């Protein structure tokens, strides 16, 4: 069975984003669906951490400033990322 896992407590829907309504439409992607923009970039290894900076992080519509603050702090501590 090659069916992808879906968490019952966190389904890919606006319900998982919180009680407020969001005017912007989001597209839910699995990590396997996220690919480099150009064909040349496909030769590079995919990585999450590549010299992250606090300015790389932006708060969106979720109201998750507590998470953004934590990510900004961690980005300044390379040993925590490792």
Q: What is the global morphology?
A: extended
Total of helices:
2
What's the story with the biggest beta sheet? none
Q: Report the helical percentage.
A: 10-25%
Mean pLDDT reading = 72
Structural class: mainly alpha
Distance between the termini: 35 Å
Low-pLDDT segments: none
Radius of gyration over C-alpha positions, nearest whole angstrom: 16 Å
Using DSSP, what is the number of strands?
A: 0
Explain the overall architecture.
The N and C termini lie far apart (35 Å). The chain is mainly alpha-helical and 82 residues long. The model has no long low-confidence stretch (mean pLDDT 72). The protein has helices spanning 65-75, 78-81. It has one domain (14-80).
Briefly summarize what is shown.
This protein has 82 residues and is an all-alpha fold.
């Amino acid at each position: 069975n090659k069916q992808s896992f879906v968490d019952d407590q966190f389904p890919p829907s606006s319900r998982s984003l919180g009680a407020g309504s969001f005017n912007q439409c989001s597209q839910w992607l699995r990590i396997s669906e996220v690919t480099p923009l150009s064909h040349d970039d496909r030769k590079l290894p995919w990585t999450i951490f590549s010299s992250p900076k606090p300015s790389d992080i932006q708060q969106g519509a979720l109201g998750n400033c507590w998470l953004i603050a934590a990510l900004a702090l961690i980005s300044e501590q390379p040993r925590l990322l490792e």
